[in-house]
Recover the amino acids of this structure.
């Protein structure tokens, strides 16, 4: 039987993760958080004392990455690396930086390709990342590119950090987001850009539910 795929790509802080999970819940589909795989690889490199620019060693690590995606009683994602819960560890700014560094290596991306495609299981998949519609699932049934201004994305992150009791600087977060955007968009392999035929949504002035509804409507209208 045919297994549909819906891709949601976009820069960090655009709300992709939240949107992907809500759309998947509405449709009863599985979710692939591809950014988590790059974050997990960064964490695995740290554990195994592999340097973040050692491409051959990272390729081997990526091919054998021992990870498990589960959920707790509330349905929140739990991510295990080598049997250990790293759900919080991989969400730090440091882990995000390591992820975007290993993500520029072609052999690493290639080693993670089949693993990402294996998430396509019945009844369907919502895949969230940077190159889901351009590289990993080029024949996806619906491709969405979700953006928001750097200021709006930094502000969301700022609020999240304050809620968690962390200290934060909005100006530093804006700089950080711009730097990450540049790295993701200007890399030669699988750069961040809208896939051909992608539905481009700007969430700067749209609430989460409004974005979810537009994606669901587009998915229902897709051929
Ligand atoms: O989406 P998230 O912020 O978790 O991704 C972390 C980093 O992993 C991104 O900044 C990007 O460099 C990389 N990534 C990627 N391709 C994907 C998903 C994430 O290169 N499909």
């Amino acid at each position: 039987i045919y297994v549909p795929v819906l891709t949601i790509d976009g820069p960090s802080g655009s709300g992709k993760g939240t949107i992907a999970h809500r759309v998947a819940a509405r449709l009863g589909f599985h979710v692939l958080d591809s950014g988590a795989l790059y974050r997990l690889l960064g964490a695995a490199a740290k554990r195994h004392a592999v340097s973040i620019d050692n491409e051959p060693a990272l390729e081997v690590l990526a091919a054998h990455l021992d990870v498990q995606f589960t959920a707790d009683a509330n349905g929140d994602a739990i991510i295990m690396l080598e049997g250990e819960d790293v759900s919080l560890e991989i969400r730090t700014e440091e882990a995000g930086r390591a992820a975007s560094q290993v993500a520029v290596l072609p052999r690493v991306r290639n080693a993670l390709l089949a693993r990402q495609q294996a998430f396509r299981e019945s009844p369907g998949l919502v895949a969230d990342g940077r190159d889901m519609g351009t590289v990993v699932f080029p024949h996806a049934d619906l491709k969405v590119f979700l953006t928001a201004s750097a200021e709006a994305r930094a502000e969301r992150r700022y609020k999240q950090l304050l809620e968690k009791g962390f200290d934060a600087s909005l100006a530093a977060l804006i700089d950080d987001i711009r730097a990450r955007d540049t790295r993701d968009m200007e890399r030669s392999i699988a750069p961040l850009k809208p896939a051909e035929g992608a539905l481009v949504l700007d969430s700067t002035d749209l609430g989460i539910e409004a974005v979810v509804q537009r994606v669901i409507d587009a998915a229902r209208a897709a051929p």
Q: What stands out?
A: The beta strands are 5-9, 30-33, 67-71, 77-81, 84-85, 125-129, 142-147, 199-202. The first helix runs from residue 16 to 27. Residues 19 and 130 are 14 Å apart (CA to CA).
